[in-house]
Write a structure and sequence with these properties.
Layout: H1 7-10, E1 11-20, E2 23-32, E3 35-41, E4 44-51, H2 56-66, E5 76-81, E6 91-96, H3 104-107, E7 112-113, H4 144-157, H5 159-164, E8 168-173, E9 179-185, H6 188-201, E10 211-214, H7 220-228, E11 233-236, H8 242-251, E12 254-260, E13 263-268, E14 285-288
Parallel strand pairs: 3-6, 4-7, 10-11, 11-12
Antiparallel strand pairs: 1-2, 3-4, 5-6, 8-9, 8-10, 12-13, 13-14
């Protein structure tokens, strides 16, 4: 059930003109691949998502899981490319066991899901919330010093970003800071679906002792996908949205934002980081990791 294509499809080359201090030259530039992928369940089209080719079977499996359409890898009978010649490597056909999708009409998407949005095409407000969300492991703990080291581990592992400068990344870490898996894509929600799909097909769910680090903002759809996978801590290098913070607090997810250099902001779940803060505080707060004597930092959004 492996869906990784060649690097040629994930990264494409294009001739461009560079202007540099008044001088113009032509050169070849590497572009992040972005192509549509149709996900079919049996003979029915479920959704079309814009993605970077590679790990497409993981993407399809992770999407079905984080949307609450399946509960385990045993719900998947098979994953394969669609038979249609024109759809080769652009359509994944998923065969599910009978009764795997309890409410197919509620989860059906009618429109294109873009690379920037993981909620496009939902047919009702109620369908925004995936079924089966539970509170993540309350006993998992992460050292703030280890948390601060995660971006430095992530960056050199982003091989496609290094070539194109145009891809999001999501990475799973254990409490010691060890990188377990990383996926890249033009869509930030796709990176999480690919990781969750990897864990699902490897029999690793729930990810109850893992931290998820994402390169984009901590939006609602990323929070929901993390909770579906049982992830107790989500960190991003950017901000979180109001709905994301609300959901994280409701379900007890540790949500960290602005994880850069040796500082971060915690929106919820500070107990997993061993932080002693006022319990009645309703505001996000800033944590400064210990730096060398005399060093100073300024906090800017």
């Amino acid at each position: 059930m492996r869906g990784r294509e060649s690097d040629r499809q994930s990264v494409q080359s294009s001739a461009v003109f560079e202007w540099n201090d008044g001088k113009v030259r032509q050169l070849n530039d590497s572009l992040a691949g972005e192509e549509p992928l149709l996900i079919q369940v049996a003979d029915q089209a479920l959704t079309v998502t814009m993605r970077t080719p590679g790990d497409d079977f993981e993407l399809a499996a992770g999407f079905l899981f984080t949307e609450g359409m399946i509960r385990s890898r045993e719900d998947i009978v098979s994953l394969r490319w669609a038979d249609d010649f024109e759809a080769e490597h652009h359509a994944v056909r998923v065969e599910l066991k009978a009764g795997a999708i309890p409410r197919p009409q509620e989860t059906k998407r009618n429109f294109l899901s873009t690379s920037s949005c993981g909620l496009c095409g939902k047919t009702s407000l109620q369908a925004v919330h995936a079924p089966g969300i539970t509170r993540p492991n309350p006993d998992c703990r992460f050292d703030p010093q280890v948390l601060c080291s995660l971006p430095k581990t992530l960056r050199p592992a982003q091989t496609l970003f290094g070539r194109t400068g145009g891809l999001h990344a999501a990475a799973l870490f254990d409490p010691s800071g060890k990188l377990l898996a990383l996926r890249e894509d033009v869509g930030r929600h796709n990176t999480v679906d690919k990781l969750v799909g990897w864990a699902l097909l490897q029999g690793r769910l729930p990810l109850s002792n893992c931290a998820l680090l994402v390169s984009g903002r901590g939006g609602f759809e990323i929070i929901q996908k993390s909770l579906m996978a049982g992830i107790p801590l989500l960190a991003s290098v950017s901000a979180a949205s109001s709905l994301a913070v609300q959901m994280a607090r409701e379900f007890g997810l540790t949500l960290v934002g602005f994880l850069r250099n040796r500082r971060f902001v915690v929106y919820s779940g500070e107990e997993r980081l061993g932080l002693d803060v006022p319990r009645d505080s309703a505001m996000a707060f800033q944590v400064r990791c210990k730096v060398r004597e005399g060093a100073s930092m300024s906090y800017r959004r």
